Amino acid sequence: MTSKRTSQSNIAPKKPRKGLRKAGLSPGSVVFVGEQKVATTTLRVVDYSASHCEERELQSIEECFPLLNSPSCTWVIIEGLQDIDMIKRLGRHIDLHPLLLEDIVNTSQRPRIEGTDDHLFCVLKGLRLSPDTEAIAVDQATLVVGRNYLISFQEIHEQAFDAVLNRIRMPQGQHRRAGSDYLAYSLVDALVDYYFGPLEVMADHLETLEQAVVDNPRPETLHQIHRLKRDLVTVRKTLWPMREVVAGLRRIQSSIMTEATRPYLADVYDHTVQVMETTESLRDVIGSLLDTYLSSVSNRMNQVMKVLTLIATVFIPLTFLAGVYGMNFDYMPELHWGWFYPLGFWIAIGIVIVLMVALFRWKHWI
After folding, report:
1. What order of strands is seen across the sheet that includes strand 112-115?
2. Do both 37 and 116 map to the same domain?
3. Is 147 part of a structural domain of the chain?
4. For the chain, how many structural domains are there in total?
5. Can you give the residue range of the structural domain that contains 352?
6. Closest alpha carbon to 184 in 149, 160, 209
7. Under 8 Å CB-to-CB from 38, ≥6 apart: which residues?
8. SS3 at position 26
9. How many whole angstroms separate alpha carbon 46 and alpha carbon 190?
């Protein structure tokens, strides 16, 4: 009994589910829900206009408050969502509703959009390949868009946003003459375009698996097919709400979203549809690949069973002959013939084998 209790006490407790951390709390409770993907929260600000572009690291969130009210466009980049107190201070300064602050730090949120005359609130999802396993990983990025500023709350450093930052640094670029709504469009477009990278890698893996399934289907191949299928489900669950976000940005009635930016959102929507079509085609390929694997395995099994059946069929008459001459009867005249064993018995066995093989070939069984 003692050893049983000891072994049970050594079992590690299961990690609580994400939703249990907020169970029982009142609405608007700002609690970080999700996996902490960076060690510390980093703050950066990019303030730009047609005549200047300034980038710098921030030691505290209060350093960016004067820039949020300036006539230039300000992009505040927050990487890491675990600093709840900092996010609350920022929310109070820009008068952001506590329910929206709650959604910012809840990384299990579904992509969505809300809009008022003061803010646009967008929850977005980015896809990336895990460097160790090459599996699909999903990261949340939330955009809060004001009249002259945009604040991006990111779980990690989004590589998709680096291209937008490089365009802002160009003095003659369109970003330098546009406002925060155009910056929001650019970030959404960058995330959607970044979906193509993991999908192309998945397509390459599927092409390799197709050849492996035809040549030599193995259990490891089936595991890889199921992993890609799970990744594709993740992409599909992420992509469908993202399409709704882009469509919502096009339709939303807010003074922050100008008419000059809406045509660009139509282009992002087209990219979203293209990604969806690619996802659906890969989904069909995985389904057919799984069917091909099962068919190949079944065909190999049939071939093995065919060979074993033919061997067993050939040995049935031989077993009969061996059984007849293995009986203990006194009166079997041929047993007393001197050449019966080398000539009679084995020649008979050889003739039976030849006749059986000839019959199989005539029936096209071999």
Report:
1. 53-58, 42-48, 73-79, 149-154, 136-145, 120-129, 112-115
2. yes
3. yes
4. 2
5. 325-362
6. 149
7. 79, 80, 155, 156, 157
8. coil
9. 18
Q: 180-194 vs 160-169: helix axis angle to the nearest 10? A: 140
Same domain (yes/no): 266, 347: no
pLDDT in tens, 321-353: 777 777 766 667 776 676 667 767 788 888 888
- Tell me the DSSP string of 28-44: T----BS---SSS-EEE
- Among the listed residues 21, 122, 45, 40, the one whose alpha carbon sits nearest the alpha carbon of residue 82: 40
DSSP 218-261: -HHHHHHHHHHHHHHHHHHHHHHHHHHHHHHHHH---TTS-TTT
pTM beyond 0.85, yes or no: no
CA distances from 342 to 41, 266, 328, 339 (A): 91, 90, 20, 6
pLDDT band of residue 8 (cuts 50, 70, 90) is: very low
